[in-house]
Amino acid sequence: METSLIAQLAYLVSAILFVSGIKQLSSPATARSGNARASVAMLLAIVVTLLDNEILDWTTVAAAVIAGAVVGGVLARKIEMTAMPQLVAVFNGFGGGASAAVAAAEFVRLGGSGTGVELGAGVTIVLSTLIGAVTFSGSLIAFGKLQGIVTGKPVTFPLQKSFNALLFLAVLVIGAGLADVGIGDAVASIFGSSVVEVGVPFFLALVAGALILGVLLVIPIGGADMPVVVSLLNSYSGLAAAATGFVLGNMMLIIAGSLVGAAGLILTQLMCKAMNRSLGNVAFGAFGTDGPTTKAKTGERPVRDVDAEQAAMVLAYAGSVAVVPGYGLAVAQAQHELKKVCDLLEERGVRVRFGVHPVAGRMPGHMNVLLAEADVSYDKLLDLDDINAEFDTTDVVLIVGANDVVNPAARDPDSVIAGMPILDVDKARTVIVMKRSLSPGFAGIDNDLFYMDNTLMFFGDAAQQMSELVKEVREA
Amino acid sequence: MGELLIGLYVFVLATLAGREVISKVPPTLHTPLMSGANAISGIAIIGALVVTGAADSTWVRVLGIAGIVMATINVVGGFMVTDRMLQMFRKR
Fold first, then answer.
1. According to the CATH classification, is domain A308-475 in 3.40.50.1220?
2. How many other β-carbons are positioned within 10 Å of the β-carbon of residue A168?
3. A320 phi and psi, to 5 degrees?
4. A382 sits in which H/E element
5. CA Rg, chain B, in Å?
6. Residues 24-43 in B contacting A (C-alpha not used; CB under 8 Å)
7. What is the pLDDT of residue A174?
8. Which one of A25, A324, A418, A445 is at 20 to 30 Å from A97 when CA atoms are compared?
């Protein structure tokens, strides 16, 4: 399976297209062509691979490709934008699963050939299988949590960390054993049987251990921490592909895999920073639930509440409005009604922008996609630093379904969310909070913002209240 | 220089290049970046094609085909859904 010179050069072209395609993703104006470029790179790599290798069974290969393309295509077309994190989790899992399957196939092939393999090949096969299988099962659990099939609450049991550590150690020992003795003719000569027979039970143990490890690494992580998990699994799927590249001695796999690995890692770091948590804390902290766990003291302090008509008045007569959307907006599917409110305000000459916190939604940048789907122009979507510079001069902030990311307690060094980057909405002249009740967010703490003098609470279901608001702003 | 070592050089340098390029992607586009990167991780399809093409035993073939199907779902679905998202990002 030597790769020919022409194929190598074609892979190089692919690699250049991948890198330049990703580079184009850095601006909304060029992003679409960047994605197209990357898909051309992929197509080129696939075609070259097919031409360069002697494919013995074209029918089966074609059938497998068509089956995968149909499933992938249908999923991509049908999926709701709110369900994007689940879809990415599933795709991640398939990427990892594919890498593990390829490594396993190489294990069987090399073992069966009886010619023996050097240590390096054994190590790479083990690594590729390990990372791929962890990615596969971990992603499926992440999918389950995001979809609501698996509980969003952290699942913990006594001695969980010790058990995980032991399992990881066991998997490494099995892997080391496999890499060293499982493959190679030395084994065959000692045991007098083919390597496959000797290695297979070990190999299956490795796969099983890795699959269980993937499950155990994701189940203790709470629903609110999913952006970090999805990013991390994304990184793993890239690393798995790169490891497969080492197995096959294929540079294309190594390059593309490490690009994805780097992307996932950067996003993981950004998400951790946005939540003011270390990766270790997310992985082992069992923090962040699907809803409030502890009952914060609420309702003891007076709040000012308004109805749709009053809220509409405040918004309609403002000079500038900043909207802060949270995941609650997406849950209520109220983004389209919100867009209508904003259009009406703009018709009246009100300046409207959106302040999007990095962890709004269930994956990095999720809220931006939902707003783009609702036809919000992307130049109105401001990130944390940009919008924070503008709150001083903003008349009204409209918060919809966000809580912890606007909690001024983050500035209090004694708070559990101390140091978390927040949107400084309290600096605006008036704040309207659209929310079901005073109940706390994921962090489980009360929000002082609700009780401030310049805050108006607009209680109710976001979808219903937003349609009310459309009506009232129109009449204002 | 052995093949593994060359691979390691390529891996490290490509990771650094990736870091440079990706760190410039604004938060607005993080979801498309992730799903696009996700599609690229389906590059495992190449490995799956190589092993399936040369399969001389049933198990190799079964694993290879499973790899092709999973990787193709990843590639086709990933690029298509990224395109679907990006076409919604418009300036008005």
1. yes
2. 17
3. -140, 140
4. strand A381-383
5. 17
6. 24-43
7. 78
8. A25
* B9 lies within 8 A of chain A by CB: no
Q: Which of A225, A395, A404, A412 is catalytic?
A: A404
Which pair of structure tokens corresponds to residue A255? 């390059």
Is residue B33 situated within a structural domain? yes
Active site residue A57: no
Q: How far is B79 from chain A (nearest CA, A)?
A: 6
- In the structure encoding, which two tokens stand for residue A101, read together? 């399957």
Q: What is the pLDDT of residues A367-418, one digit of tens each?
A: 999 999 999 999 999 999 999 999 999 999 999 988 888 999 999 888 888 8
> How far does B78 lie from chain A, in Å, by closest CA?
7
Q: Counting beta carbons within 10 angstroms of the beta carbon of residue A377, is it exposed (0 to 12), middle (13 to 18) or buried (19 or more)?
A: middle
Domain that holds residue B38: 27-86
Q: What is the ipTM, given to two decimal places?
A: 0.96
Does a structural domain hold residue B18? no
Q: Using one digit for the tens of pLDDT, what is the confidence trace for A224-275?
A: 788 889 999 999 999 999 999 999 999 999 999 999 999 999 999 998 888 8
**Residues of B whose CB is below 8 A from A405:** none
Q: Do B47 and A369 touch (CB under 8 A)?
A: no
Domains in chain B, number: 1
Residue A391's pLDDT is what? 95
- Listed by start position, the domains of chain A span 79-284, 308-475
pTM for the model stands at 0.89
User: Which residues in chain B touch residue A32, judged by CB atoms under 8 angstroms apart?
Assistant: 83, 86-87, 89
